[in-house]
Amino acid sequence: MCWIPSHVNISGSERADIAAKSALSLPITGMKIPAEELIAGISKFCMNEWQDMWDCSHGNKLYSLCPKVGTVKHSKTLSRCDYVFIYRLRVGHCRLTHSYLLSGDNLPTCEFFGLSLTVKLILLDCTNLKETLC
């Protein structure tokens, strides 16, 4: 690997320029790293960086489903369309609960409790809806 200084003539980066120029006088090492180790190290570094960015997005609805990056395993038996459907339900996005955003209507509410209509409310919480659907 060869490091090439890239801060040359960029204002405000004089210290980086000095450090880059001082590195040019260092001897080139003959250390050889197997590609497997190099690729594994780079992959681990990238995953850690990605995880750090993901940890800053607690408000993201997907974060509650998958707080750890790179851990979701997809089954080969389901199509992409099926996965989209399942994830939209898990996140709580469906036409019934979110169409008001596009149409300009008011937020839909549960006629029994007066709460905002959500997928969780429809499938799990509203006992009146369960009795109506069954």
Briefly summarize what is shown.
Helix content is 54%, strand content 0%.
| Proportion in β-strands | under 5%
Largest sheet: none
Instruction: Name the poorly predicted regions.
Output: none
By DSSP (H or I, 4+ residues per run), the number of helices equals 7
Structural class: mainly alpha
Helix content range of the residues, please? 40-55%
Estimate the global geometry from the Cα principal axes.
Answer: elongated
Global mean pLDDT: 80
Measured between the Cα atoms of the first and last residue, the distance is 65 Å
Oligomer: single chain
Q: Could you spell the SSE succession in H and E letters? A: HHHHHHH
Tally of strands: 0
Q: What is the CA-atom radius of gyration, in angstroms?
A: 26 Å
Which short descriptors sum up this protein?
single chain, 134 residues, mainly alpha, 3 domains, 7 helices, elongated
